Q: What sequence folds into this?
């Protein structure tokens, strides 16, 4: 196409999407694409959900928009109540925004204001993990630890400390148990706190299951519990970023429920609106809310479209679909089938190093040598070749490069809709395996 859109790339003219049908998107030429990644882990209910359509039509007929500086709305109030009813223990309030980056930005600013309100003005530092991704606004980008995304904007970013990720495939030592490994890398937080001075640190942020940058890497048993203990010992707020891994994606409404650990703040987006409306949310503890309420009474933050009635109506319909259709159980069941299918087809592949994840959130890491875990030369851009070949075959997946350190490594992230069938899982795995084989053959011939 030619036109005036400033797209993601000036070198690519993508096809025009004109329709959706369950787990498929359809372009202007009639070609069907199985959405094996839900876009970017967004379209959890597929692309033609009737309840969502009806909810949006009904809300539009009542009220499209009212600025939250003047009004609240019934959909927003209902959504907040429903989220808190299911939220990890201690989370009591919901701050509605329009996406994941906004949610993380709000969390960072609220952490700072919280400590100002309680008289600990010296706390201003954030600690995060290498190879994390928390969004593209400046505060969220500064918190993120993916160098490829950060490097050109470095002079604009607030200094943030980054400790090791919980990346068992790459970093667990020979003979080290999962639990011992988790404790060891979690203890890097204690070391960094002591280096900085714990009294200067306001928050630690992490993804319970790392998404885009590493490809569905879950925390090992005990890791998040040790992180919680360290934060509590030093009065540091714990923020879980569940923008990609939350809202049922792992088989639990909140991913951290599987680990039995509750944060002080939790961010969600993506699957919350299922692609039908842009929406995100920051869930906060009662203690944080009370500090603001008993202090200034005003969170010095805000966005024009926060708490949008149309977006909240869509999110309420998403929650209803998940509950009434028992989709969390479906995610766990179909996630097991997806994992089995991937292992049967790719488990012994000479260039597949790891298959990992939870629920319908799975990652496949590619290596040049399985024995040494040596990655492919990044100049080959294996991930880009896989994406192109998969798309050509009618599969949307989410490959990325820089898996290990922002430069080395390739992986494919899968996050299909919660409604995916057995036959569609078979199609996904078949087309993905073909794209991987084709990309590797082309890269080796290059």
A:
């Amino acid at each position: 196409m030619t036109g005036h859109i400033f797209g993601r790339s000036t070198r690519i003219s993508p096809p025009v999407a004109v329709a959706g049908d369950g787990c498929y998107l359809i372009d202007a030429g009639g070609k069907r694409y199985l959405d094996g990644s839900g876009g970017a882990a967004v379209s959890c209910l597929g692309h033609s959900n009737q309840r969502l359509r009806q909810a949006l039509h009904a809300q539009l007929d009542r009220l499209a928009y009212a600025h939250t500086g003047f009004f609240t709305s019934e959909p927003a109030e209902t959504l907040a109540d429903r989220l808190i009813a299911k939220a990890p223990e201690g989370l009591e309030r919901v701050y509605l925004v329009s996406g994941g980056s906004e949610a993380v930005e709000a969390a960072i600013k609220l952490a700072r204001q919280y400590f100002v309100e309680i008289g600990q003005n010296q706390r201003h530092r954030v600690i995060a993990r290498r190879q994390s991704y928390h969004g593209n606004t400046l505060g969220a980008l500064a918190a993120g630890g993916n160098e490829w995304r950060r490097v050109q904007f470095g002079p604009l970013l607030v200094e943030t400390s980054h400790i090791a990720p919980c990346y068992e495939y790459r970093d667990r030592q020979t003979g080290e148990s999962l639990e011992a490994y988790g404790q060891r890398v979690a203890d890097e937080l204690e070391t960094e706190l002591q280096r900085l001075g714990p009294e200067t640190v306001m928050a630690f942020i992490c993804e319970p299951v790392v998404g885009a940058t590493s490809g569905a890497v879950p925390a090992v048993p005990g890791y998040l519990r040790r992180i919680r203990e360290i934060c509590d010992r030093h009065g540091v707020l714990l923020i879980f970023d569940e923008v990609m891994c939350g809202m049922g994606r792992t088989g639990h409404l909140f991913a951290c429920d599987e680990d039995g650990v509750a944060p002080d703040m939790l961010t969600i987006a993506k699957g919350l609106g299922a692609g039908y409306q842009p929406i995100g949310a920051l869930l906060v503890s009662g203690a944080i809310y009370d500090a603001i309420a008993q202090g200034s009474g005003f969170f010095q933050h805000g966005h024009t479209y926060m708490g949008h009635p149309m977006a909240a109506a869509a999110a309420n319909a998403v929650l209803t679909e998940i509950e009434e259709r028992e989709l969390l159980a479906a995610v766990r069941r179909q996630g097991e089938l997806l994992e089995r299918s991937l292992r049967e087809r790719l488990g012994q592949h000479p260039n597949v190093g790891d298959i990992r994840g939870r629920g319908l959130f799975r990652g496949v890491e590619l290596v040049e040598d399985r024995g040494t875990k040596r990655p492919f030369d990044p100049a080959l851009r294996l991930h880009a070749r896989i994406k192109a070949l998969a798309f050509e075959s009618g599969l949307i997946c989410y490959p990325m490069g820089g898996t290990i350190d922002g430069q080395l490594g390739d992986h494919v992230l899968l996050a299909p809709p919660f409604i995916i069938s057995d036959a569609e899982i078979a199609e996904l795995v078949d087309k993905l395996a073909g794209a991987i084989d084709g990309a590797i053959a082309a890269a080796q011939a290059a």
About this structure: Residues 17-49+326-445 form a domain with the Aspartate Aminotransferase, domain 1 fold (CATH 3.90.1150.10).
